[in-house]
Amino acid sequence: MFDGFETRLVTGEGAEIFVRTRGTGAPLLLLHGYPQTGAMWAGIADALAQHFSVVVADLRGYGQSSAPASQGGVGYSKRVMAADMVAAMQALGHQRFNVAGHDRGARVAYRLALDSPERVDRLAVIDIVPTVAVWEAMDAKAAMKTYHWPFLAQPFPMPETLIAADPDAYLDHTIASWTASGTLDGFDPRALEAYRASFRQPARTHAACEDYRAGWAIDRLLDTADRSAGRRIQAPTLALWGSSGIPATGSSPLDIWREWCVDVEGGPIKGGHFLVEEAPAEALAALLAFFSR
To answer: Which sequence positions are flagged as catalytic?
Structure first.
């Protein structure tokens, strides 16, 4: 995967961030979700690098980035993780940039756009709505679909201990359960092995739980404060979601994002939660059209 990409570690805001880079043109930062790594972008990163200076990053605690110690989610708030990306992009020479994120990476991306609007030219969020909106809409149906939100946010060490019993089985089940087909058929076996290799490490399992603890204890409150203060994302925003994805079963994701963004467009793509891997051609076309303006 990622033939022709250069790899390096750059210093974030208290973490070492692993990045893959290639291409010329406007900088485009790609951020992965849970329970994945930057490997999720392998199928479309080369095509994007024909048009942009692509930076594929592993979030702190995931993949080959460092996993700082944390309790109660403090080290994995999206504000802290967004600051990592600002520092990493600056270290690579990019003061302003475009950013696309999927799942947890999209939460980092929109927090970055809220906290550092001077850094973000254009923003794409894939198969999410804002964190506070997820918690506020957590009815019985949503709880069954997104049970991992309250599960992973439970205090240490309960979720870590249960996942450690068979991390591969947990990861494979989790990913398959969020696809349109209910299988792993659409995934590159090399990417799946990268996800498993990361998830087998107790420090990274703990980091992922801290990511979700932050979602409950910190990120939800940051969203609430921004909404109360009337802060909105200033960068032009693209919201994509799977027709069978996680947010598709609730209120219209685009209607929700209109409450948070000055300028937002988008719509569904046929597939489940993992659009970049389930529908790569459609996801690529949408991202190219948006970021090329």
So the answer is: 103, 273
Domain ranges for the chain: 6-291
Q: How many residues does the chain have?
A: 293
Nearest Cα to 257, choosing from 113, 82, 139? 113
DSSP readout, 138-204? --HHHHHHTTHHHHHTSPTTHHHHHHHT-HHHHHHHHHHHTSSSSSSTTS-HHHHHHHHHHHTSHHH
Q: What is the helix, strand, coil percentage profile of the chain, to 5?
A: 50, 15, 35
Question: Across all residues in the chain, what is the average pLDDT?
Answer: 97
User: Considering the domain 6-291, what is its CATH architecture?
Assistant: 3-Layer(aba) Sandwich (3.40)
CA-to-CA dists, residue 281 to 62, 277, 288, angstroms:
26, 9, 11
pTM of the model: 0.98
DSSP string, 193-248: HHHHHHHTSHHHHHHHHHHHHHIIIIIHHHHHHHHHHT--B-S-EEEEEETTSSGG
- Looking at residue 39, its pLDDT comes to 98
pLDDT at 249 over 90: no
